[in-house]
Design brief:
Strands 4-5-8-11-12-13-14-15 form an eight-stranded parallel beta barrel, surrounded by seven helices. A three-stranded mixed sheet has the order 1-2-18, with no helix packed on it. The protein contains 20 helices and 18 strands. 46% of the residues lie in helices and 13% in strands. Strand 6 and strand 7 form a beta hairpin. The chain is globular and about 65 Å long. By secondary structure, the protein is α/β, with parallel strands linked by helices.
């Protein structure tokens, strides 16, 4: 393969290749496929290009504002409530009423936009399925385009999957979960589609293609007159929410549907965003259906925000749960904020997966899930997330035992006690210790997740948990932080500094991974490449904002449209 510019590779070819029919200024550099061409129609691409042209400068400015905020934090500043928007926090406004189709969201399942996953998730018994173009998907050209095809078939109700290995055909039940779609974050490019000479914004591609092809069918079926429905990731402030609101208004105008038809839940998964929850809801008040505790990314963001603060080092990631004061405060304030504004306050992810060959361990895992969900529903959350269909029944029982037939707790649990929460509560240093096993687990999970991501899988079962990019990010930034400040492993009596043992730990954990997955899979997989990327990022003098931004270059493949004339 031959290197091509800033992104990826160009694939060699010796014959004329069919090309997509594109509007002016749009260049498709991904592989041509007749099925993909049904998604990448000229009109759909024109819609995406219109979005890109109208909002790209707003997005670039928002990303510059992130850099400026990072500079302030690195110089010692702390995030906090903005005095300039106090009037919004103290005002008596509410968001638009919740659409009846999604009033009851007590259990939601999440997963990548893979065909079999979509069918199983929609059939799982959950109230909502969040189909993911973001942290649970490796954004290769094939995955993204097939994901759009799969979702279009799902909205039309025609999706099927023939599993030849199991001799089974999967299809949708009569009653299915409601579909939400999560596009990528603002920061991720789509390097297979260039608009006016630069890569498109990934989330505008994901949103634009899905909305264009599905809004009419979705509103007639799933949305009961509303929709489509979305989850919005990785935002840091209300400025970014305002861009999304403008995108929604432009899409509604293009489609000729009522303002407020599109609805979205925002993931509060960055530390700066917890201080802007009212403001984020205010900007999206015509389009909001709540906020969600994206707790794994939130922990990642805590480390990233305080990368220049050696007094705020995290303990082992397994010790940073919702019982930590700063995490509980974040959850409580989110519930209070959402219910005050008339929308859902969604709980966090249960990442456990059934352990089929060990009934004792399986029951212990399910007990952890039950306790976590009991804490959420009693705190006032209106629903929760699960990563595996096998957890749906357990989560549903816990929420129904408290909520009964009431679709949500928006009117019944106001959590006015959380109005007393302060900046100090939300920033309190986590308690706990750091151990060699914590370092080893971070190393092992980070490398294995990245190896899977490089080979096309973004949702990976590891050690009885379903891992996505968020948990790999925690592993990466925590090791980086420990190395930068020469942390001593104080939790297991060893007293060694991470700097003195990290190289050896990487070698030993690579040997363990090879033993666990087998020599053949290890040889065929991209474990060595993943190890190089992961260790380079952990030992870099400057912390990269996202693991996937660097790794993305390894999965971009450009295909020339016509090289026959040059041969």
């Amino acid at each position: 393969m031959i290197g091509l510019g800033s992104y990826g590779y160009t694939a060699p070819s010796s014959k004329k290749i069919n090309a997509y029919d594109v509007p002016q200024g749009v260049d498709i550099r991904g592989r041509f496929d007749e099925e993909f061409a049904k998604i990448l129609t000229k009109d759909a691409l024109q819609f995406v290009a219109d979005l890109q042209r109208e909002f790209r400068n707003h997005i670039k400015y928002a990303m510059e504002c992130r850099k400026e905020a990072k500079r302030r934090y690195n110089e010692g500043a702390l995030p906090g409530f903005d005095p300039a928007t106090r009037y919004i926090r103290e005002g008596k406004w509410t968001c638009a009423p919740v659409p009846p189709a999604v009033a009851d969201r007590r259990v939601e399942i999440t997963g990548p936009v893979e065909r079999k996953m979509i069918i199983n998730a929609l059939n799982s018994g959950a109230k909502v399925f969040m189909a993911d173009f973001e942290d649970a998907l490796s954004p290769s050209w094939e995955n993204l385009m097939r994901g759009q095809i799969n979702l279009k078939d799902a909205v039309e109700g025609t999706i099927t999957f023939n599993d030849k290995a199991r001799n089974r055909v999967y299809k949708l039940n009569n009653e299915t979960a409601k579909l939400f779609v999560r596009p990528r974050g603002w920061h991720l490019p789509e390097a297979h589609i260039f608009i006016d000479g630069e890569p498109a914004t990934g989330c505008l591609v994901d949103f634009g293609l899905f909305f264009y092809h599905n809004y009419a069918n979705f509103r007639n079926t799933q949305g009961q007159g509303f929709g489509p429905f979305f989850y919005l990731p990785k935002m840091e402030n209300s400025r970014e929410a305002k861009i999304w609101n403008s995108v929604f208004e432009k899409a509604e105008k293009m489609a000729g549907i009522e303002k407020g038809s599109i609805r979205a839940t925002v993931l509060i998964e960055t530390l700066p965003a917890v201080f802007q929850m009212d403001e984020i809801l205010y900007e999206l008040r015509d389009h909001s259906v709540g906020l969600n505790c994206g707790r794994w990314d939130y922990i990642f963001s805590y480390v990233k925000t305080f990368q220049g603060h050696p007094d705020r080092l995290l303990p082992d990631r397994g010790q940073v749960g919702m019982t930590q004061h700063f995490m509980r405060s974040y959850s409580d304030l989110l519930i209070r904020t959402c219910h005050r504004r008339g929308v859902h306050a969604m709980g966090g992810m249960a990442a456990q997966i059934p352990i089929r060959d060990d009934p004792t361990a399986n029951e212990a895992a399910f007990e952890l899930v039950r306790k976590d969900k009991q804490r959420e529903v009693k705190a006032g959350h209106d629903g929760t997330w699960a990563a595996h269909p096998g957890l749906i029944k357990t989560c549903m029982e816990v929420f129904t035992n408290t909520m009964g037939n009431t679709p949500n707790q928006i009117e019944t649990v106001k959590r006015d006690d959380a109005s007393n929460l302060t900046e100090d509560d939300l920033l309190q240093r986590p308690r706990g210790v750091r151990t060699m096993e914590g370092l080893r687990l971070n190393t092992r999970v980070g490398i294995q997740y990245l190896a899977a991501w490089l080979t096309g899988s973004g949702s990976v079962p590891l050690y009885n948990l379903m891992e996505d990019a968020a948990t790999a990010e925690i592993s990466r930034v925590q090791i980086w932080q420990w190395l930068k400040y020469g942390v001593e492993l104080d939790g297991d009596g060893l007293g060694v500094r991470v700097n003195h043992v990290f190289g050896r730990v990487v070698e030993e954990e690579m040997a363990r991974i090879e033993h666990e997955v087998g020599k053949e899979k290890f040889k065929k997989g991209m474990y060595k490449e993943a190890c190089k990327i992961f260790t380079r990022q952990c030992t870099a003098s400057t912390l990269d904002d996202f693991l996937t931004l660097d790794a993305y270059n390894y999965i971009v493949i450009h295909h020339p449209k016509d090289v026959s004339s040059k041969l």
